[in-house]
Amino acid sequence: MKKLMTLMMCLMTTSVIMAQVAFEPEGTTLEQASAKAKAENKLIFIDCYTQWCGPCKKMSKEVFPQASVGDYMNPKYVSLKLDMETPYGAPLAKKWQIQAYPTFMILTADAQEINRFLGFHAPDDFIKVLDEKSKDNSSGPLQARWKSGDRDPQFLMEYLQSLNASYKADEANDVAEAILDGKEETFAADSTLRMVFLRNITNPFAKSFKYTMQHPEALKAAVGETLVQMKTGNVLMAFQRQLINEADGTATLDQERYDAFSKLLDELGVVNADHYRLQTLITLSEKQKDFAAYLNYIRQYLANPALDATDMQLAQWAKAITPETDKLYKTQMQAILRHRLNDIREGKREPQRMVGNMKLSAPTDQLLQMIIDAIDGKMPTKK
Questions:
Q1: Do residues 69 and 20 touch, judged by C-beta distance below 8 A?
Q2: Helix residue ranges, H only, 27-135
Q3: CA distance 26 to 28
């Protein structure tokens, strides 16, 4: 009887394990998943996540272990979990232009994207959306028409709508550029074309973007100055992030694109152009763990009268310096932080109390002091 009960428990445990989503072992590559999908005549499902993403953890805890989800997915998909901030995942995040988490990708067995969707979904809703997104009823034929040279205005709007539903930002930008071609000076007066620009133009070299940067008045009159500033700033910032290539755990600057982007910033008369140049180099040197260059670029940023790093930006930069970092660089980072702290204490600057619309739990002078202590490995003390 005891043996029978043990066997029954094992069978029950096995049943539960088999019912949940059968993700491939950690370290499985996309190439390996593709080979398995071809052999088993399945699609590929990828959970693109990060360690810090709350909804990602909720999906892993509440949805993927569900029997109904596993029963639906396991016969149809080779399922893969990819941390998009690892040396392997980061280049894929850049290639796929993933900017929100979790992003769920559905690929053919040949690893060609069919569709994607975002965010937490309850089990039944997740199955419904996954089934719908796996059918690819529209993008394929529309893409074929696009590649054949079809530029009929009605077709372009239909194709753009399909790409937006699939979160395919690069392709959507290309179609948006075609829609706005020749309308750079007039699109601001048309509500539909304004939305095409605001939602889909991500290329700072696009004619409509360059015109808007140099002649923003009409668009500002239509949607307000704040929205125009947010749009143009977001496009420049997103492109700046693409100037660093990451592969096999190494980071390199795409010098040709960086030079072209730097030239464009001057051509467009961007007031804080050096922000994008220096932020690229700061990020690059951090990824390369070249702390001498890292701190040098930070000092250049702080010395530039056209720029103004906030206290929170300084705190973000300081995160790269740990108690294990070479003492010389720890001392230099602490000197930078102390300089800002002294400016606050002498009344030359006000401490930051807000980030956007969010009120900080304590003013940033306290935060900066905590970081200075933490760099030396000191634990904060309660007051």
A1: yes
A2: 30-40, 54-62, 67-73, 89-96, 123-133
A3: 6
Check whether 122 has a pLDDT greater than 80: yes
The predicted model scores a pTM of 0.74
Q: Which residue bears the tokens 């602490």?
A: 334
Q: How many CA atoms lie within 13 A of 98 on its CB side?
A: 27
Predicted pLDDT of residue 139: 64
- The values of phi and psi at residue 65, to 5°, are -75, -10
Structure tokens at 180: 């706005």
Residue type, position 154, single letter: Q
Phi and psi of 352, rounded to 5°?
Answer: -75, 135
Amino acid at residue number 269? G
Number of Cβ within 10 Å of residue 328's Cβ equals 11
Residue 175 near residue 185 (C-beta atoms within 8 A): no
Does pLDDT of 149 surpass 50? yes
Calculate the alpha carbon distances from 177 to 66, 169, 350 in Å: 43, 12, 43
Q: Which residues contact 328 (CB under 8 A, 6 or more apart)?
A: none
Report CA Rg, the chain.
Answer: 25
